[in-house]
């Protein structure tokens, strides 16, 4: 990703979110945990974005705890709130509500409304080895940027009943989230084609 600086030079841009939590657990209807010290940086993965994983994640309390153990709370990051900024807690229903809201963001970007005016919290900005590093204030902001920088590839899987329909395409023509869903579509098309051929033969036989 590139960004135009005020002096009209181009700079390579990377963005990251705080990472590293411990002691994540369920306490009643809440998730509680602690940020590790020192806090690390998460720049994403090559195979799949956190945005995709979050949009498709299950709602069971254990699943929400599992997501938090791996990626941390949705926000805010450490140093930004509370008497002890390294401790965090949030109710389960706030996580599910945030997921619904994120799915709305996904749908709006898919429709072409890129929401570029959305406010993002900045944790830090620095230049390293020719790269401008943008520190997101929360995991939510990080996932939003993941969608915005790939807005042309944001997709919904065309397979009816797909359990993980939110995906980011690798190329412009992808319509299905996985090989399994693509094979399902091809199998369905073949069945329809063979049925059409059978009906035509029956008509000719009459």
Can you put this structure into words, describing what you see?
The protein has 206 residues and is an alpha+beta fold. The chain has helices spanning 50-56, 61-71, 92-110, 139-148, 179-205; strands at residues 2-4, 10-27, 30-42, 87-91, 122-128, 131-136, 154-156, 166-168. Strands 1, 2, 3, 4, 5 and 6 form a six-stranded mixed sheet that branches. A two-stranded antiparallel sheet has the order 7-8. Strand 2 (10-27) and strand 3 (30-42) form a beta hairpin. The protein is globular, with a radius of gyration of 22 Å. The N and C termini lie far apart (64 Å).
Percent range for β-strand residues? 25-35%
End-to-end distance: 64 Å
Compute the gyration radius: what is it?
22 Å
Tally the structural domains. Answer: 2
Question: How confident is the prediction overall: mean pLDDT?
Answer: 82
Number of strands: 8
Major sheet characteristics? 6 strands, mixed
- DSSP helix fraction: 25-40%
Order of helices and strands: EEEHHEHEEHEEH
